Amino acid sequence: MRNTGVVKNAETNLDAVPQHDGKTRRAVARLLLEQGPVTAAAVAEELGISPTAVRRHIDALLADGEAITRDAPRQTQRGRGRPAKLFLLTDAGRAQFGHAYDDLAVAAIRFLAQTGGEEAVRAFAQSRVDALVDRHRTAIVAQATPAERAKALATALTREGYAASARHVGVGEQLCQHHCPVAHVAAEFPQLCETETEVFATLLGSHVQRLATIASGHAVCTTHIPNVQPGSAGKLIPDDGGEPA
Q1: Which InterPro entries does this UniProt record tie to the protein (predicted)?
Q2: Same-domain check for residues 27 and 144
Q3: Do 222 and 107 have their domain in common?
């Protein structure tokens, strides 16, 4: 009797990957990390495999509690019918990509707060983020425009494990960090996020606004960077030749 579980020329048929194939599942999970919330179709297009194959891996992530689903916003829907499903990783899913701190780190900062107070925690947060960006500082500040600096910062953060991206939005840039190695610590000590935001502003030479953080329960850490040239006394650069918002 023919074994239907064997696929001819399987090396060229990516859809034949088993449901729990580690390499492909991790590739799917990484796209949910870096681009989520995202549709299965978008993941399939990025990886070059069928949506059906992607859904097998996403179903496994959902079953293991490493991913969740939500409906796409109505404004992105075309035509009628059920809303498209978007997928993103849970804290458990993000943890598979490593966390820089664990319960011991939380306990250590609690002790620091008890013995040194608020200023000691802020001094620690400042030291940590300074060390994070210092090796990339020259490359970032060398960029001429806010958009170029935002992209350089996103590249630097990605190299440090934050899976970051930057894109143009309205009259500014939007910096997204799809992973936070210290999210569990920052959930208890928001000084880490606050200090990070302050350092971003100094590094980019512009006021920035933190819109969302993974530590506070959002899917992505999002920072708005207005298109203000260093030394421009706060004037917004018009978007595409139009008037500033």
Answers
A1: ArsR-like_HTH, Carb_Metab_HTH_regulators, WH-like_DNA-bd_sf, WH_DNA-bd_sf
A2: no
A3: yes
Mark which of 96, 130, 157 sits at the end of a domain: 96
Helical axes 146-159 vs 191-204, angle rounded to 10°: 130
Q: Are residues 107 and 221 in the same domain?
A: yes
Same domain, 27 and 130: no
Mean pLDDT in the chain?
80
More confident residue, 239 or 101: 101
* Residue 41 confidence (pLDDT): 92
- Say how far apart CA 145 and CA 230 lie, in whole Å: 8
Residue ranges making up the domain that contains 170? 101-226
Cβ neighbourhood burial of 127 (10 Å; 0-12, 13-18, 19+): exposed
* Rounded Cα distance, 225 and 72, in Å: 26
Residue 235 in any domain: the answer is: no
The tens digit of pLDDT for each residue in 211-231 reads: 999 999 898 999 999 875 544
**Residue in 61, 65, 51 with CA at minimum distance from that of residue 21:** 61
Is 80 exceeded by the pLDDT of residue 159?
A: yes
- Are residues 25 and 134 both part of a single domain? no
Question: Cβ(87)–Cβ(63) under 8 Å?
Answer: no
CATH of the domain at 57: 1.10.10.10
